[in-house]
Specification:
The chain has 205 residues and is of the alpha+beta class. 29% of the residues lie in helices and 28% in strands. A six-stranded antiparallel beta barrel has the order 2-3-6-5-4-8. Strand 1 and strand 2 form a beta hairpin. It starts with 5 loop residues before the first strand and ends with a helix.
Length: 205
């Protein structure tokens, strides 16, 4: 695994590269099919002097060869690795990210970057300092809600992002209150949606 991770110019370790790109989102392919970022986590792409920030909203694993499909062997992964390791060589994992901001000259902008990420640019997980800086404001929600049509289920993504924030020890009561207020504002004070969302949040407290 480690020989397929590359140290970038920053302190990040890259594990994937961009294979499709637009202003709103980008698709990346992992260098290892079983090493990929979590749903709702932040990743970064170095784009010259600008760092593009994306949130993972979709992940898919399958065959890279359209004529070969994974076959159910009724064996564990350990057994398959021992007996037929070649079948894993045809697997690939891709993930899609929404661009929800960028960092330039040390300042985070909660907006689409002026240019999309370059194809074959390396992707790394955002470090804790960037995550803390990025989530110090709820302005990213405005960008996300503006791209809600590109997400299968925006509320699922928001819950995943909150789990990630909590895992990094950043989910304070004040931050939660600000998030709920912003969520209510962006949903037009939809009481039913807010109530259901809050019920699911209770398990994260």
């Amino acid at each position: 695994m480690n020989n397929q991770l590359i140290q970038t110019n920053s302190t990040h370790t890259a594990f994937a590269e961009v294979v499709e790109s637009s202003l709103q989102q980008f698709v990346a392919q992992c260098w290892q099919w079983d090493f990929f970022p979590a749903f709702g986590s932040l990743v970064t792409v170095e784009n010259g002097l600008r760092t593009i920030i994306g949130v993972v909203h979709q992940t898919q694993t399958g065959s890279m060869d359209p004529t070969r499909y994974p076959f159910p062997y009724q064996k564990t992964e350990e057994e398959l690795l021992r007996e037929q390791p070649q079948i894993f060589e045809f697997l690939r994992t891709t993930f899609s990210c929404l661009t929800i901001g960028y960092k330039e000259k040390g300042v985070i902008q909660y907006a689409l970057a002026p240019q999309p990420s370059k194809i074959h640019a390396f992707i790394a997980s955002a470090d804790k300092d960037l995550i803390q800086q990025f989530y110090s404001s709820d302005l990213y929600l405005h960008v996300l809600f503006g791209m809600s049509n590109s997400v299968f289920n925006l509320d699922e993504l928001l819950l995943a992002m909150l789990r990630s924030i909590k895992q990094h020890g950043l989910l304070t009561e004040k931050k939660m209150a600000n998030f709920i207020e912003a969520f209510s504002l962006h949903t037009g004070n939809d009481y039913r949606r807010l109530k259901l969302f809050l019920q699911r949040l209770e398990g994260m407290r």
